[in-house]
Amino acid sequence: MHKARIVIDPDFHIGAIDPRIYGAFVEHLGRCVYTGIYEPDHPTADDMGFRQDVMDLVRELQIPIFRYPGGNFVSGYNWEDGVGPKNKRPRRLDLAWKVVETNEFGTNEFVEWARRVGGEVLMTVNLGTRGIDAARQYLEYCNHPGGTALSDLRRSHGAKNPHNIKYWCLGNEMDGPWQVGHKTAEQYGRLARETAQAMRWVDPTCEFVACGSSYRAMPTFAAWEDTVLSHCYDFVEYISLHTYYGNQTNDLGTFLGRSLDMDLFIKSVIATCDHAKARARAKKTLNLCFDEWNVWYHSMEADKKIPLWEIAPGQLEDVYNLEDALLVGSMLMSLQRHADRVKIGCIAQLCNVIAPIMTQVGGKAWRQTIFYPFYHASRFGRGVALNIEICSPKYPNKEFDEVPFLDAMATHDPEKETISIFCVNRDQHDALQLEVELHGVPDGCRVLEHIVLESKDSKATNTAENPERVKPHNRGNAKLAKTKVTAQLPRLSWNVIRLGKQAAPTKKRD
Ligand code: AHR
After folding, report:
1. Which residues does 327 contact at the CB level (< 8 Å), separation at least 6?
2. Which atom, in ligand 1's list, is nearest to the CA of 173?
3. In CATH, what number is assigned to the domain containing residue 437?
4. Is pLDDT at 505 greater than 60 in this prediction?
5. pTM beyond cutoff 0.90
6. How much distance in Å is there from the Cα of 240 to the middle of ligand 1?
7. What mean pLDDT comes out for the span 280-304?
8. What percent of the chain has pLDDT over 90?
């Protein structure tokens, strides 16, 4: 059995964790909206047609911010189509996903849905087929209190109070040739600058996200960010990052190491932002908005067979196994590890479409395997991200010479006086013997619980028929003696060791 060590000192901070890193993405894509969060004929639907079984699961995840309405979808979207009386809303071809969009669900429904589940909205404007004028009008419709044609139009649609949406993405993946209205970095940088300027004149309280690269392997990566920021550094507060990882070749060692790529991606974007800051002689430091991330590969072949122009077909319906949950856990740790600069993160997506929550039309809703690491990180990974030292044996894979068997992060919640240690054991064969040296352990501190997500079969999934096949237990064996925590981390497992003074209310599922 391999041995690994961690040293933790609650005084050694990376930075305060912005709760918004536990955000999620809702796109008009597949069944994310229609028959996902919204299904008026569903037995649990509320007065607005929102599925309450889904809302209950969303609330469990304590998600503070939701990105909407796309994604590739937004680059051909007319926001006007999705407001006003539903029977007058037009059906349109969605060129991104080759489906028909009914527009039965739109801005006011989404803002109300987000309010009911306790989150705010990260809204995206269309900078593909549209531009400054539509963006500033959309903001006026959403945020201006009243007394103008657009704000009064919103009021006439039943939304008397302004939505006060503070965070706005300036387009989506504009570096990607697949994007409707794809642009060069020069074209986009100028457009992002002018759009942010006009929108800020409409509402000076807003903050803006410029599009970064769609993933690190994009041929234009880093040059794109550099050029875009040369135009709009002073006009935006964040730059976006997106990444998805897959295991198409069934090479688990390589797959589980892909969070190292995410770390590299984040570090490179920080470096590029800081270069742009120096060049602009700017005081402001740009933050990162990792507004699409997840595992995505299971559904890709099946999606090629979906006929054109259907309404809300089941697209991107990845059914996740334990292996995927482990990488999602590592990706969450990657966001925490850069808490000083990553201020917003959105798991993509929330429901049915590469999602932690799945639904049947007219039937059940259940938790996928990846639900659990997200649930634990969002619930227990609040407060301050700690700068921990990890000493772990390593293995080589196709992409990295040295991948540690142990992936770990720790967070300290000063209010609750708890420390959470998150760990993934990437070892496919053996448990990992963990030793944690704790500096400055408060008197009376003890192990509150050691949660473990594991499975004999690492390909095991949760389905409508067997929705609880993979779920966490809290029978991990972590022990604290003086200043040392020892624990065995089972092979291929996600672990949360919670330390504190008080007994936590034990949740059955944990
Ligand atoms: O989340 C699915 C798609 O992935 C999004 O629409 C797009 O932004 C990304 O390429």
Report:
1. 245, 255, 256, 258, 259, 295
2. 8
3. 2.60.40.1180
4. no
5. yes
6. 13
7. 97
8. 97
Of ligand 1's listed atoms, the one at least distance from the Cα of 354 is 1
Cross-strand bridge partners of residue 493? 425
What is the structure's pLDDT at 443?
Answer: 81
CA pair distance 240, 211, nearest whole angstrom: 5
Nearest CA to ligand 1 atom 2: 71
Q: Pocket residues for ligand 1 (CB within 6 Å)?
A: 27, 70-72, 172-173, 214, 292, 348-349
How confident is the model at residue 417, as a pLDDT?
A: 92
Judge if 375 and 390 occupy the same domain. no
Same domain flag for 352 and 408? no
Domain assignment of residue 364, given as a range: 18-380
Residue-wise pLDDT for 203-258, tens only, equals 999 999 999 999 999 999 999 999 999 999 999 999 999 999 999 999 999 999 99
Active-site residues, by number, are 173, 292
Clarify whether residues 329 and 429 are in a common domain: no
Atom of ligand 1 nearest to the CA of 244: 4
Distance from the alpha carbon of residue 71 to the mean position of ligand 1, in angstroms: 5
| Residues 380, 17, 28, 300, CA torsion sign | negative
Q: With CA atoms as reference, report the closest residue to 245 among 294, 178, 206, 210.
A: 294
- Per-residue pLDDT band at 440 (split at 50, 70, 90): confident
In a domain? residue 394: yes
- Quick one: 221 and 264 in the same domain? yes
What is the tally of structural domains in the chain?
2
Whether 505 maps to a domain, the answer reads: no
- Residues 318 and 390 placed together within one structural domain of the fold: no
Whole-number Å distance, alpha carbon 208 to ligand 1 midpoint, is 19
Residue with tokens 């595992």: 295
Q: Are residues 419 and 495 in the same domain?
A: yes
* Domain closes at, from 335, 355, 380: 380
Over the stretch 34-71, which tens digit does the pLDDT of each residue have?
Answer: 999 999 999 999 999 999 999 999 999 999 999 999 99
- In three-state secondary structure terms, 24 is strand
Q: Looking at the structure, do residues 275 and 159 belong to the same domain, yes or no? A: yes
- Would you call 400 helix, strand, or coil by DSSP? coil
Mutation test of ligand 1: which of 72, 180, 318 has the most ligand atoms closer than 8 Å to its C-beta?
Answer: 72
pLDDT beyond 80 at 333: yes
Residue 17 CA to ligand 1 centre (angstroms): 25
Statement to judge: residues 446 and 335 lie in one domain: no
